[in-house]
Amino acid sequence: MRIAVTGIGAVSAIGITCAQTLQSLLDEWSGIGKMYALSSNHTELPVGEVPYSDAELKDLLGIDEPMPRTALLGIMAAREALRTAGMPIVNSQEPIAFISGTTVGGMDLTEQHWADYQEGKAIEHIRMHEAGETTRIIAEHLSPFTFHLSPFIATPSTACSSALNAIMLGANLLRTGQAKTVIAGGAESLSKFHLNGFNTLMILDHEACRPFDADRAGLNLGEGAGYLVLEREEDALARGAKILAYIGGYANTCDAYHQTASSADGEGAYRAMKGALEMAHLNPADIDYVNAHGTATPNNDLSESAALLRLFGNHMPAVSSTKAFTGHTTSASGGLEAAICVLAMQHAFVPANLRWSKTAEGLITPVCHTEHKPLRHVLCNAFGFGGNESALILSTEAIELSEAPMTQWFNEPIHVEMVNDEMVNAFVSPAEARRMTPQMRRIVAAAKKAMQESGVEQPDAIVCATQWGCMLQSMRFLQDMIASDEQQLKPTPFIQSTHNTVASLIAILTGNHGYNATYSQGKQSMACALTDIRTQMALGMIRSALVLEFDEQVETWDQVLSLIGDRTENIARASIYIYRKSGLYQIVESQKSQDKSLYVLRFNPEHPIFAGHFPGQPIVPGACLVQIAEDLLSDMLGHAVRFNSVTNLKFRQAITPDKEVLMTITESKCTIEDNVSHVMYAQFAATYMCPDSDL
Amino acid sequence: MEQLIEQLKAQIIEALNFEDMTPADIDTDAPLFGEGLGLDSIDALELIMLMDREYGIKLADPKAGKAIFQSVRTMAEYIQANRTK
Question: What is the pLDDT of residue A689?
Answer without folding.
Answer: 40
